[in-house]
Amino acid sequence: MSTAPSPSARRTGTGDRPIALVTGASSGIGAATARRFAAGGWRLLLSGRDRPRLERTAADTSGTALPVDLAAPDGPHRLAESALASAGRIDLLVAGAGIGWAGPFTEMPGAALDEVLTVNLTATLRLVHEVLPAMVAAGRGHVVLVGSVAGVVGVREEAVYSASKAGVAAFAEALRQELRGTGIRVTHVVPGPVDTAFFERRGTPYQRSRPRPTPPERVADAVWRAVARGRHDVHVPAWLALPARVRGIAPGLYRRLLHRFG
């Protein structure tokens, strides 16, 4: 477990506990992140679609369960409204909700295409859009966007998932520039494959030998450190930052490696 200092004092400037809204908290990265921040003394507002699992996470963290389907047209608005009504403010948003789909792009059902884009990209942007005005008014806040290495390298047979996470990456950078001077920080967390039920839920197991799946607690610890230290971009594991660098410096080599390992 990380020994990074608690970011609570910087987040609120007061003696009360800082408040984090974590989406995708039913399981996986979201649940692990909720537990990590609860251990650090934060008050948790937790959202997810699986109500029984969400309530277990809430019980483990003494958090407040806010079961909302972010894919619903009014989902992001209802979640932000419920969170602000429950706690009065949001010091940290960890946007971790996401789904996947694997297979040839030409065989992907249109409904699945729409759902991946809606949950991973559209709902994320809309939720940030709902939460951000209160942070701007307060002059402080932190937005953590959970992306994927697939959004950096583009993974074959995960074209739409890769596109959705590439959109999150571009949004993080653009938003960060737009919010300069407001007191609000934006962190983009880029994990590789994570050892969760994500692959089981998408219906296709993870079959690559590398990179090996990372425990969700390792990603949660990286989120904790990023908030504590105000980092812009975090890759988990750290070596996953290399593909983007290779792509910029030697695109031909990058594509040869991608054809072999991507």
Give the mean pLDDT. Answer: 87
Radius of gyration: 18 Å
Q: Based on the coordinates given, report the CATH architecture.
A: 3-Layer(aba) Sandwich
Number of helices: 11
- Fold-level CATH name: Rossmann fold
Q: Supply the helix-strand structural class.
A: alpha/beta
How many independent structural domains? Answer: 1
CATH class: Alpha Beta
CATH superfamily: NAD(P)-binding Rossmann-like Domain
Would you kindly provide a written description of the structure presented here, covering whatever features stand out?
It is built from 11 helices and 7 strands. It is an alpha/beta fold. The chain has a single domain, classed as Rossmann fold. Strands 3-2-1-4-5-6-7 form a 7-stranded parallel sheet, with helices on both faces. Helix 2 (28-39) runs parallel beside helix 3, helix 2 packs across helix 9 and helix 4 (75-87) packs parallel to helix 5. The relative contact order is 0.13. The model is unreliable at 1-6 and 8-15 (pLDDT under 50).
